[in-house]
Amino acid sequence: MNICVYGAGAVGGNVAARLAATFPGDISVVARGAHLQAIRERGVILRTPTDEIVGRPVIATDNPAELPPQDLIVVGLKAHSLGSEAERIARLRKPDVPVLFLTNGIPWWWSHGLGNSASKSGTLELLDANQKLWNVLGSDAVLGGVVYSPNEVSEPGVITNHGPTRFVIGEPSGVSTPRLAATIAAFKAAGLNPEVAADIRRVIWKKLLLNASGNPISALTRLTGRQRAETPGLPDLVRKVMSEVLDVAASLGWDLRQDEDVQAILQSGGPSTSRDNRSSMLQDTLAGRRLEVDALLGQVQAFARQQNVATPTLDVVLPLLRGLDKSIAAE
Known about the structure:
The protein folds into two domains: 3-198, 3-Layer(aba) Sandwich (Rossmann fold), CATH 3.40.50.720; 202-330, N-(1-d-carboxylethyl)-l-norvaline Dehydrogenase, domain 2. Helix content is 43%, strand content 15%. It contains twelve helices and twelve strands. Strand 6, helix 3 (86-91) and strand 7 (99-101) form a beta-alpha-beta unit. Helix 8 packs across helix 11. The mean pLDDT is 93. Its EC number is 1.1.1.169. Residues 199-324 form the Ketopantoate reductase C-terminal domain. It catalyses: (R)-pantoate + NADP(+) = 2-dehydropantoate + NADPH + H(+).
């Protein structure tokens, strides 16, 4: 089973290291720059709280055209980078081969297979403006993935994992398929702790509750989760964003407001409040990388407008985050 990890950053690097260590000779990686060079020289090094894993991909490249057709493509790129890579990812696919997207927030393929108003226009303009992903790659290629794993690239070729790793994977249709089973089996063998989701969009909303509130506030303040929790006013701000995200989700048919896990998160004041981990968006801000603004907040606001749901807090945080992203792009 040839597997390509397309984008071996913090999350993709964790996946690549474990897969390559488990399936030597079957795993390829698409990366770039100093990170790619380090992977070529030493492999992908994953440091966990209890272990160090070294995976050596059979090919590490910044040119996907060098790779043969794949049996599974795992995409670890940020949401705003996907459109420019659609054609290169598509050329890696064998017929009927899945592409597992491990992206934060609302995914570009959200409308695939839905019968409600969210799918009337097909692709989501904010996330796939030129419909490249929808038309070139094809929404039927997609497996949805939700990541629960705190990681960062601590140096080129080295991924540091700060806690438990778990992946929730599902077909957008909710159907159990052979390609989903094969993906789960590969992830399980590599110790990536996969779970099958009967409704992957429900899991996406639940994770988005954390990302849409904690990530932007951490990026705007440059504070870790613990520091954010200790700053007067910020926990209340985080809760307000979470409540608005829950209202939007409920308006679209995914009502999580009575979920016990969600209630516990709301009471705790948001994600990662007991640790000094840096959120992925804070990592991107500090490194001068573009931010996943529309996947985390922009599309939520678009859904809210469509459903006539008020989001007064999100409406303030979103333009501030867009301003931060604009300043990073200018630099």
